[in-house]
Amino acid sequence: MKVFISADVEGINGMTEWCEATKGRPEYELFAQRQVKELAAISEGLHDSDPGIDILIKDGHETACNIVHEFLPEYTRLFRNTGRTPYIMMHGIDQGFDAAIFSGYHSGAGTSGSPLCHTMEPDSIVYMKINDELADEFLLNYYSALYNGVPVVMVTGDEALCQRVKKVDPAILTVAAHVGEGGGVFSCHPNITNRELRETAAKVFAQKSQCSLVLPSHFAMEIRFKDHQMAKRAAWYDGVRRIDDNTIVYENDDYFEVLKAYMFII
Ligand SMILES: [Zn+2]
Question: Which residues of 215-252 are buried (b: 16+ CB within 10 A; e: fewer)?
Fold first, then answer.
């Protein structure tokens, strides 16, 4: 089996502050180690059920240069930094993968499930919607996987995100690494999360055939910016409509065109 893992950090066990997610800050190092331990646990669980497993991990957070490969099993491959394609956190996904997993994901902008709620760009995006529903990074990247015919089989992150994932597709296996409340999170010991990650990852191949591959037939992406100037700039992209001072909409039937529009207007 060939598995694609998109790796973020805000939804790993215990993360509550932006400094913990920011490379170069002293608080970051502990959480970088925690992230790689979670990824190793997922990889080991996949390997438990398929010793011939081929895993590609896309480092997906900020600079995308967070993961130290030496701390992962040898049967993992890694893509660091940006591929300069519209897939962004999903760079490397293609039709050759059997399944996709999102790790360390988090609740999106406009919700309250994490102290670090955001969608893509926390400094510039107030919220994103797709087809009139709030869209988070999970949904954006879920559609990228499905666009390539790859089912999303497992998502890890804050508990509110896990509940939201189950509403999109109840067959996706989830592991809640913490529970957000106000400015903080409740978490169990990281070793317990890691055991649960390994056990859950070992079950994904049995689950795979239950997972949906149905994409919407049309996409209307709405973005509300903090800064009205961003909306004015975005409206120069072909097909973008500015619906008020700070908000734009882009519509297309082809999801890759939506991803392209996002890449150029942000
Ligand atoms: Zn992130």
Answer: eeeebebbbbbeeeebbeebbeeeebeeeeebbbbbbb
CA 251 to centroid of ligand 1, rounded, Å: 26
Ligand 1: distance of its center to the CA of 22 in Å? 9
Ligand 1: centre distance to CA 21 (Å):
7
The tens digit of pLDDT for each residue in 34-50 reads 999 999 999 999 999 99
Among 190, 210, 230, give the residue marking a domain's end.
210
User: What is the pLDDT, as a whole number, of residue 44?
Assistant: 98
**Residue 228 sits in the same domain as residue 150:** no
- Report CA(10)–ligand 1 centroid distance (Å): 5
Reduce the DSSP state of residue 38 to 3 states and report it. helix
Kind of pairing, strands 76-79 and 54-59? parallel
Average pLDDT over the chain, rounded to an integer? 97
> How many CB atoms sit inside 10 A of residue 112's CB?
11
pLDDT at 237 (0 to 100): 98
Q: Quote the number of domains for the chain.
A: 2
For residue 192, report the distance from its CA to the centre of ligand 1, in Å.
22
Q: Nearest 5°: phi and psi at 115?
A: -65, -15
Taking the centre of ligand 1 as the mean of its atom positions, its distance from the CA of residue 158, in whole angstroms, is 13
pLDDT in tens, 160-189: 999 999 999 999 999 999 999 999 999 999
Distance (Å, whole) CA 108 – CA 114: 8
CA–centroid distance, residue 104 to ligand 1 (Å): 8
